[in-house]
Amino acid sequence: MDKIKMTTPLVEMDGDEMAAILWRETKEKLVLPFVDLKVDYYDLSIRNRDNTDDQVTIDSAEAARRHGVAVKCATITPNLERIREYNLKKMWKSPNATIRSALDGTVFRAPILIKGIEPYVKTWEKPITLARHAYGDLYRATEMKIDGPGKCELVFTAEDGTERRELIHNFTSPGVAQGIHNLDNSIRSFARCCMSYALDVKQDLIFSAKDTISKVYDRNFREIFKQVFMEEYMEQFRHAGLKYEYCLIDDAVSRVIKNSGGYVWACQNYDGDVMSDMLATAYGSAAMMTSVLVSPDGVYEYEAAHGTVRRHYYQYLEGSVASTNPLAIIMAWSGGLKKRGELDGNEALSAFGAALEEESIQTVESGIMTADLEKVAVNPSPHVVTGLQFIDIVQKRLAKRLD
Ligand code: NAD
């Protein structure tokens, strides 16, 4: 068969460890044989970020903005241990945080639903998509260790020099303090992204925060969501028969365990980080979650929601079998190709992305899966394979289908 042609390149952001092994294998075996792939390639592996003083991450975000669609492999966010492990010049920022800030986007994480793989939460019948605000809060915090007694304050100095002060704490003994911020414009974009997405997937929307305790910060989020809804989306939601609701985060968490799913749950940055891991695990495995960063001006970055799977990488390097599940990585590629096809009016490319997704899902439905899914499989004796074997099997199915 002739390979499918592309007009606009896909921005490829390569990554680290086991995720990178599966990433390259997916590209080699599941994309390159079928697509005349055009990529604008950026190597975001920790060594190259260190060599380029992280310029490569900034360049990759600019390329995503230029071309509109990117696919990203999981990358190491350095901590002290990683600095020693890779002999790094410094503790570079999380590439995801850099890219999210550059694109001011919202991350939508949705489970990969497969017949025969049952979520741990038995009431869930429909997917729950988690929308995570991708700017500010803890991820842009300034922190201070307080060594002894003294007064710690929040000070805002306006451009005309006037000051406003709020006492954080009168320290009588050592402790810690933290300052976080967010921007009305970013919160507004977040609200719009969530509301457009909910309309797109025809699901109700919940936004949760803790405004009973955070009476200014979280209250501001709640008010902006309400205003955007009333002024821009209420009519469209009514027409579509959908609801928007604010919900205290505690209430949202207890509800999620009891209901049947089928809605978009918008969370602040930290809540979204934690809750998306909870949802992914409850749907069977960290590898059962797709993730896409959507910017308000329509830039899409597809990635797997899990990390670099370091533990498996060291097993792999030692020559033992690492049963890493490549599904979310395959879905990042297929999602990017489908969106590229859609934006370029390239139906063959979109259809290929959809075929790649279907063949991967049907492989699991036929009983062939990686070890992480064994515990949640309905079939009592699935055929367990490694991640690399799984990719080989999907390649054979795809080749047969597209022949
Ligand atoms: P991780 O997601 O890499 O792995 C945690 C555990 O989850 C693994 O030990 C494994 O048991 C399971 N797991 C994750 N993905 C799996 C898969 N595809 N198949 C089977 N099991 C899977 O998280 P971590 O160990 O906390 O982080 C490792 C590295 O990844 C860190 O350096 C961190 O900075 C980075 N990280 C990157 C991203 C990203 O780029 N999107 C996200 C999270 C963590």
UniProtKB/TrEMBL annotation:
Parts forming coiled coils: none
UniProt-annotated site: Critical for catalysis, residues: 139, 210
Gene3D superfamilies reported in the protein's UniProt record: Isopropylmalate Dehydrogenase
GO MF assignments: isocitrate dehydrogenase (NADP+) activity; magnesium ion binding; NAD binding
Amino-acid positions noted as binding NADP(+) in the UniProt annotation, renumbered to this chain: 75-77, 82, 258, 307-312, 325
Residues of the Isopropylmalate dehydrogenase-like domain: 9-394
Cofactor: binding comment: Binds 1 Mg(2+) or Mn(2+) ion per subunit.
EC number, as in UniProt: 1.1.1.42
Domain of life: Bacteria
A Pfam family of this chain: Iso_dh
Cofactor or coenzyme needed: Mg(2+); Mn(2+)
Positions with a binding annotation for Mn(2+): 250, 273
Catalytic activity: D-threo-isocitrate + NADP(+) = 2-oxoglutarate + CO2 + NADPH
Gene Ontology biological process terms in this record: isocitrate metabolic process; tricarboxylic acid cycle
Residues annotated to bind D-threo-isocitrate: 77, 94-100, 109, 132
Keyword field contains Cell inner membrane: no
SMART domains per record: Iso_dh
Alphabetical keyword list: Magnesium, Manganese, Metal-binding, NADP, Oxidoreductase, Tricarboxylic acid cycle
Assigned protein family: Belongs to the isocitrate and isopropylmalate dehydrogenases family.
PANTHER family: ISOCITRATE DEHYDROGENASE [NADP], MITOCHONDRIAL, NADP-SPECIFIC ISOCITRATE DEHYDROGENASE
Protein name: Isocitrate dehydrogenase [NADP]
Classification of source organism: Bacteria, Bacillati, Bacillota, Clostridia, Lachnospirales
